[in-house]
Amino acid sequence: MDYKKYIVEKLNVEGMSKEELYDLIALPPNTEMGDYALPCFKLAKLLRKSPVMIAEDLKNSIMSDTTITSDKVLAEVSAVNGYLNFKINKDGFVRATLDKILNEKEKFGASNAGEGKTICIDYSSINIAKPFHIGHLSTTVLGGALYRIFNYLGYKAVGINHLGDYGTQFGKLISAYKRWGDKETIEKGGIRALNELYVKFHQEAEVHPEYDDEARAYFKKIEQGDEECLALFHWFKELTLKDVQKIYDMLDIRFDSYAGESFYSDKMQPIVDELKEKGLLIESRGAQVVDLEEYGMSPCIILKSDGSSLYATRDMAAATYRKNTYDFDKCLYVVAYQQNLHFKQFFKVLELMGKDWAKDLVHVAYGMVSLEEGTMSTRKGNVVFLEDVINKCIEKAYKIIDEKNPDLENKRDVAQKVGVGAVIFGALYNNKIKDIVFSYDKVLNFDGETSVYVQYTCARANSVLQKGGVVTAYEIPELTAEEIELVKALATFPETVSAAAEKYEPSYVARFAVDVAQKFNKFYFNCKILAAEDEKTKNFRLALTNATLQALKNAFALLGIGVPDKM
Ligand code: ARG
Fold this sequence. Notes:
Elements: H1 3-10, H2 18-24, E1 36-39, H3 44-47, H4 51-63, H5 67-71, E2 74-80, E3 83-88, H6 90-104, E4 118-122, H7 137-152, E5 156-160, H8 168-180, H9 183-207, H10 210-224, H11 227-251, H12 269-277, E6 281-284, E7 287-290, E8 300-303, H13 311-326, E9 330-336, H14 340-352, E10 361-366, E11 369-371, H15 386-404, H16 411-428, E12 436-438, H17 440-443, H18 451-468, H19 481-491, H20 493-502, H21 507-526, H22 535-559
Parallel strand pairs: 4-5, 4-9, 9-10, 11-12
Antiparallel strand pairs: 1-3, 2-3, 6-7, 7-8
Helix pairs in contact: 1-2, 6-19, 7-16, 8-9, 8-10, 9-11, 10-11, 13-14, 15-16, 18-21, 18-22, 19-21, 19-22, 20-21, 21-22
């Protein structure tokens, strides 16, 4: 039950919509005052009355509504110091919340709010033959979480890996492979071996500038469809995708499309033509650009002086293709804030072209991830492969688990869930725009605001249920403060998921999980579950434990993190 909605339905304030009222209803810091409150000073200007009077008048009018008593939803309405406070009927609230969770199970928190709407999500978007490094962590897990969250809310999410598979670097790679590479080493070494070739090319090209010309020629050949060059290019691509698939599997990441930059090679001309037709293209030092000075931006370059396309050109073709193919309601780009200008520019150019859907393109920007000093696994200056970070986290998790619980079965399996979870949660727990310093000790802290803390809490709940039985039918006993606080936290899950989608902020779901876990542990330590004073109380507490475990599992499923039964 949405109590806020209920309250708003009963409230009538002249000159204010129900939506506006809904947004004004707040949770008082002190639950002694009430469960919800309307701060009436926010209405004073509109109603030209003092907040104290407004609260008093609203209270009188709401209390004259006879349905208030018959509904039994509210236990008390009071006007205190300009606040209109609502106390809800605790028993009814607790029952409604638990029943909802226990009935809806893995669907608790889901909805059909997005039915009929499509959301494209461009995320992870790796570069072929380049390392999949720690910098790709956020886009991958943020995008993955948003993909699951939107699907959960009934949207049709389309996950797109906009592969970086276009540019002279592929000519360089072919040149390097032909000169120094051999099939077996590359097959075995995958991305790392390809990257080594690439690095070697750059070193050698410094003394042999003619290599660069050769590379350009090879790239041209790819573009012209030369069989041998194309075959090599596809092979590099295949090797890269096979390598990253291992990581995607660990992180539970899926895509519906791998249409990358090269896919748009033949789809840019119409864009260029249209820009010309609409008089938007101007020449600047030989290049074709769209002037954006009026909007406080440097020009968006569409074609270089040699006629070749740019990243932005391909992105414009991609956006157009996506609109035509998926007819999206929104198209999200989960890309680091370093690319802010790029997105602002090409969104603006599409708008200037008169594409009314340009307003539906959203750059979901996030901050940088760096490793804590001293934990660099490779030499300074070298890239840190994401795979190494994940594996190291799994290894460290294994050590901790082995120390804490040497007799645990499936230790490897548990360590995998804990280690991978820690990496994901480490990247998702904070507001996405914040820069993150990744620390193994911090993300694996059993007592911190961490995934392992939540997982451990789930194992605790699971063990209680194993001993006491999985209860779904119960009566409501005299409720303790810990129980009410826990139920209140649980009840926020559906609105938390919606807010996470609306603000593109999976951290809300991560924070929900930690909040619930903390409240469950307070309840666990202060209220006896299995040794409760009577059968009715025990039964209720088992049902509450069951509901808590369910809600935590749902939250973690959205983040792509597994929950071990035992730890
Ligand atoms: N491959 C790009 C990079 O690593 C990210 C691509 C993001 N998506 C896009 N449509 N531009 O920087």
